[in-house]
Amino acid sequence: QEDCKGNMVPLPSPYLSKVANRYKKGSDDLILVGTRVHMFLYRFDSLPQPAEQLDYLKQKVLFVKRLNKDAAEYLRYRPYFEISSNGAERPYINKNLPDLKLCTGSLGSFHSKIMKCRLLILDHPGTTLNVALAANIPTICYWNKRAWAMCEQSIPYFDALEKAGIIFGDGSSAADKVNEIWDDVLGWWNLPGNQKARQAWCGRYAMASRTWRRDWMKALRQM
């Protein structure tokens, strides 16, 4: 990253190799995935700072309220309610989105649900983004790029996803895209430009391989 030197070898992820291209639509769920809301600065990191966290919550509400009735009927929200440092989100969601249905359960149960959902929505860059793109799950993302600092090398890959209409800068724009494609999500997701951007990301940040064990052993022998 940037100009930092390191002796690092890119290798396929064992877990991502397990889920690569395993998506198969089996439900009409529209799953929105949230993340922690840190209302105080506890370390230097590429995370939204306290004032930006307020906008993060606001954008979530704007996204939900912008959805048309057809899509909103199937919306489920995956929260971080159980995390103690996320105490600011629960009362905000309860006040502003009291009818929001939740997608709870273990991590394994959650991954099983997104592997067959109609459309996945991510309001932050994180691990689930890699799982989704590796598994080829139809995905739409939105976040404030100024609030999430990215390394210089990653910007072209994020830009390609944004150009393809997969990443948006705010909740309202993302909701408009959901409304636009809801009747034919798979047709949109499988457009050549979308798949090209997805595959480019996976080749760099979500590597998967059927022969990942062999790849790891070969790399270890060469060290």
Which term fits the overall shape?
globular
- Tell me the Rg in angstroms: 18 Å
Strand and helix order:
HEHHEHHEHEHEHHHH
For the secondary structure, the number of strands is 5
Distance between the termini: 21 Å
Give the helix/strand class: alpha/beta
Helix count equals 11
Estimate what percentage of residues fall within beta strands. Answer: 5-15%
Unreliable runs: none
Major sheet strand order? 2-1-3-4-5
> Could you estimate the helical fraction of the residues in percent?
40-55%
Biggest sheet record: 5 strands, parallel
Provide mean pLDDT, rounded: 90
Can you describe this structure in just a few lines?
The protein has 223 residues and is α/β, with parallel strands linked by helices. It has helices at 14-19, 50-66, 69-72, 89-96, 107-114, 127-135, 155-163, 171-181, 185-189, 192-205, 212-222, and strands at 30-33, 75-78, 119-122, 139-142, 167-168.
Written overview of the protein:
Helix content is 46%, strand content 8%. The protein has 223 residues and is α/β, with parallel strands linked by helices. Helix 6 (127-135) links the parallel strand 3 (119-122) and strand 4. Helix 2 packs parallel to helix 8 and helix 7 (155-163) runs antiparallel to helix 10 (192-205). The longest helix is centred in the first third of the chain and has 17 residues, at 50-66. The radius of gyration is 18 Å and the shape is globular. The model has no long low-confidence stretch (mean pLDDT 90).
